[in-house]
Every structure is written in structure tokens, then in C-alpha cells.
């Protein structure tokens, strides 16, 4: 594609020099630049792409996109030069055009919220399969093209990578995509060029306040996915919104287009109820305008019913049959690291879950309380270099809802694990009538202790890391898998 054609007609993107260069690819990382590529210099959190322009040129870049007014090294003759008011936005728009607007050729569903995005995305994919679509999926656990796994990186890929993945899906016959949308992706313009058929809102609670100044700012960024483009949003055709969530109510009032609300408490369009709750399966009921259906599902817990409702609402908005969609969603075996039942023949329940926010920890502990015949034991910690405000809150929640809390290390990153634990302890101690808690900084030992403490009828929750296969320390990342560690601890207990 000619450079002039690639940049033509975009507000805030100005062709300064060149135009006849043939562009063979788009790169935002200088180490990934190839001959004939256009290099887009974006400001990252740790460094600035403008510092790597010389390296990009050495690797064969034939054109550059730089920030308006930025000083850059002198460019050789024949190099195209574009200035952009916002180079991240430029990256999204140029990548979309380079890959021929792939989202416009797909039924695209974007799922956003603090909790439940991953499970909901998996469930929508299952319903799409049932409906005879050929779906792709993009999310925290996996990127998938018609069942074929791709290496997963960010929850929502950088815009250039996202458009290339979507183009790959189109070329391989996908007709629909279920995609997680993080708040980072909205702020950093990763999805600005995408056409969404349906946007899904799961909930909003305290998280990412290391990135967003306030919870209100966090909400406003989420809200962009639902607003029309005339109001600065991303203009989905339709929206599925959890109206039980206070922010969901606000969203339903401000969104335009077709809206389908769902919930268990408020007067939602699509309503759900847990009829029977068990460890390995629950009976759930859903209803919409006179239609009513019940199914057994391995997705136990009230929080999972919200995920079921979200996926079903999205399916209905896509025009899919509600009966077959609901059956496919309820037949899903579950997502790795999401309330995952670990079975090694023990007479108590052990579940591994990604819960790493106050709201998600509360949800899994309430679900555990609903199925436990005796005690609830939880192992959890908080990540370093992340929202510090949620640490004491999570300590209080665990102390209130569990009979025994074992506070341990999560991904401490650059922080002292014991300092993080002390902040969690403040919340645990503050809870009136607080249950017993222990501090065991070594996560392997903490898991082993929880398994040894459990007796018949107990429920043990290993929370925080879920599907992750690593632990991030200050100076290195080491292999660590909660599922594998839990199975090993159970086998030692049962030996």
C-alpha cells in the first residue's frame, strides 16, 4: 500500500514528506521493524519510541510516524514522514486501514468490566460455535482462531497486533469474534478502529487505581465502549448491561442503540436465578419476556450466573436462538483458573480462582460459603506495583467471609512481599469479629498449609493467580502454577 493512501483523510495525521513509498508492514517496536515497514513512535510507560527512530531506520523502515512537534533525528532521502497529534491513535487507524478493516467483516463482541470478562468471553465463543458461526476469541487466557491457539499476551493486544490478529481470523474463515476489552485498551486507543456489533458490561469495582486516577475515571473509560462515536465513544450497534451493578445503571441510561439489561435483583430484561447450588453443578433459570428456561451447569456460584446472563444477552443481541445458546453456555466445562475445581480424591473441595479484586474475592468466598458444609479456607495475596488501596479491603473481606485466611505472596514485582502482606493484615485486623488468619509469605507453603488444615466438608479457595503459570519477583520471574501446586499438595496429603 502506498504511504499516501495509507494516511489519506485522517484528522490529526499529517503527511510531511514522501507519499510514494510502498508500505509492507506496520511496527511500533523498533526491534520488530522489517524492510519496507512504517515505524510508529509511541510513548510507552517505560520508554519512548522516538528514542529508537535511528534503530528503526537501520532495520529498514521506509516511513516514520512521529508526534506533532517532536524533535527527531535527520531522516535520509526517500524516507516518508508523518506527524500525528496522537501516535497511539494513529497506530490504531493506520493498522486498521493497512489490514483492510477486518472488524467490519466479523460479528465482533467486546466484553468489558472489572470481573467476569474472561469467562463471559469463553461462553460467548461456545454459543457462537453452537449457532454454526466460526468464532475467534481474544482474551487474558488465550487468543484462539477457530479452535487453534495463538500465543496470548495482553488481555487486549496493542492495536497493530489486534488488527493483524483480526485479519488472520478473517483469512482463516472466522465469521465472529468474542473479545475482552480492558480499560487500558480503551485509554490507549487499542480498539478505536474496531466496529463492535455488541458491547457487554459485566460490572465495575475497585481495580487498576494505579492506572486510573479515580474510580469515576475508570468508569468513564469503560463507558467509551458504549457511547456513540458522535459523543467520543466507539459506537456499538447494541449493548448488554448488568443493571444490578450501580455503574451498569448509569451506563444503561447514557448508552444509545439497542440495549438488553440483565441481572438477578433489579428489574432487568433478562433475569436469572440460582435454583440449586452445588460444588460440581448448579441448576439455574433464566427468563426474558415470557420465555423461561432451566439448565444444569458446571459454572457454579452466583457470580457465574452473571457471566451466563452476560453471554446469553450478547447471543440474543446477535440474533442467535436463546434456547440453543443457553444450552451451549451452560454445557461449558469452565475456564482454567476460574473457580476451577481441583479433584485428587480428597473429601473436601479445593478451587483455584483468579480473584484479585475486592469484588471478585467477595464473590468467590460467598459462593464457597454457599456450598461448604463446614469451614471456608482461603489463600490469597495482592500484587505489587498495583492499586495499593485494595489490599486492606481484601484483607477485611477475607477475614469476614472465611473461617481461616492465609495471607501470602502473589506477584510482588518490585515491592517487598512482607510490606504488601502488612497492608493486607491491616484490613484483616480491622474487621469486627474477624476470623483467624495466618501469614505465610511463601506461596507454596501457604497452599500446602491450607490443604493440610482442611477436613471433610470444607471448601479451600486458592485465589489471586488463577491460570497464571509464573510468579513475578523483583529481579526475576519464576515458574509457579497454582493448579499444579495445589494438586501436588493434595497428593502429599493423600499419600
UniProtKB/TrEMBL annotation:
Top-level taxon of origin: Bacteria
Mur ligase C-terminal domain mapped to chain residues: 337-466
EC number: 6.3.2.13
Catalytic activity field: UDP-N-acetyl-alpha-D-muramoyl-L-alanyl-D-glutamate + meso-2,6-diaminopimelate + ATP = UDP-N-acetyl-alpha-D-muramoyl-L-alanyl-gamma-D-glutamyl-meso-2,6-diaminopimelate + ADP + phosphate + H(+)
Cofactor(s) needed by this chain: Mg(2+)
Residues that, per the record, bind ATP: 113-119
Motif Meso-diaminopimelate recognition motif per UniProt: ranges: 410-413
A single GO cellular-component term on record: cytoplasm
Broad class of the protein's primary localization: cytoplasm
Binding site for meso-2,6-diaminopimelate: 386, 410-413, 464, 468
The protein's enzyme class: ligase
GO molecular function: ATP binding; magnesium ion binding; UDP-N-acetylmuramoylalanyl-D-glutamate-2,6-diaminopimelate ligase activity
Modified residues (N6-carboxylysine): 222
Processing after translation: Carboxylation is probably crucial for Mg(2+) binding and, consequently, for the gamma-phosphate positioning of ATP.
Domain Mur ligase N-terminal catalytic: 23-70
Keyword line: ATP-binding, Cell cycle, Cell division, Cell shape, Cell wall biogenesis/degradation, Cytoplasm, Ligase, Magnesium, Nucleotide-binding, Peptidoglycan synthesis
Residues reported in the UniProt entry to bind UDP-N-acetyl-alpha-D-muramoyl-L-alanyl-D-glutamate: 30, 155-156, 182, 190
InterPro entries, A to Z: Mur-like_cat_sf, Mur_ligase_C, Mur_ligase_C_dom_sf, Mur_ligase_cen, Mur_ligase_N, MurE/MurF_N, UDP-N-AcMur-Glu-dNH2Pim_ligase
GO biological process terms held by the UniProt record: cell division; cell wall organization; peptidoglycan biosynthetic process; regulation of cell shape
Known function: Catalyzes the addition of meso-diaminopimelic acid to the nucleotide precursor UDP-N-acetylmuramoyl-L-alanyl-D-glutamate (UMAG) in the biosynthesis of bacterial cell-wall peptidoglycan.
Protein name: UDP-N-acetylmuramoyl-L-alanyl-D-glutamate--2,6-diaminopimelate ligase
Organism: Candidatus Solincola sediminis
